[in-house]
Write a structure and sequence with these properties.
This protein is of the alpha+beta class. Helix content is 19%, strand content 40%. The chain binds zinc ion.
Length: 141
């Protein structure tokens, strides 16, 4: 069972339109142990959210070789959302070594942990108020 650890979002301003941009870093526990981290980046008025889920022994200091990063895009469609796995390098966190090996879309789709990634994305959409607020917004452009 997964559990999100919430903390303060980081806010900035979109370089294209000047709207408020939100960056989230959330630790995810599985059965009480550090298991994953997800990142989400979205801008008021934009239709899409970009995220990354990094899974693999998040409790220890060094970077284990079995830590993997899965990138995703989410589109707002009314009350629901659509998530699509993308190349992890094509996200705002593509250069961060600590997140583990950046999987391409093809690698991610074959990875045994993909079901956990989808479960974490679902949990984020269900429980993360910042993300829920974004999905509930009116799209301007
Ligand atoms: Zn913008």
């Amino acid at each position: 069972m997964f559990e999100i650890e919430f903390n303060e979002p980081f806010y900035s301003v979109c370089t294209c339109c000047g709207s408020n941009t939100t960056s989230l870093t959330r630790f995810v526990k599985r059965d009480g142990n550090a298991y994953a981290v997800y990142y989400a980046f979205f801008t008021e008025g934009h239709s899409g959210l970009t995220g990354l889920v990094s899974i693999g022994e998040w409790g220890i200091e060094e970077i284990p070789k079995d830590r993997y990063a899965f990138g995703f895009d989410m589109m707002v469609t009314g009350e629901s959302y659509r998530a699509m796995i993308i190349n992890a390098e094509n996200t705002p966190w593509g250069k961060a070594d600590i997140l583990g090996q950046k999987l391409t879309r093809e690698e991610a789709m074959l990875h045994p942990w993909l079901k956990d990634v989808y479960e974490i994305i679902d949990l984020m959409a269900d429980q993360d108020d910042e993300v829920r607020g974004f999905f509930g917004q009116e799209i301007v452009h």
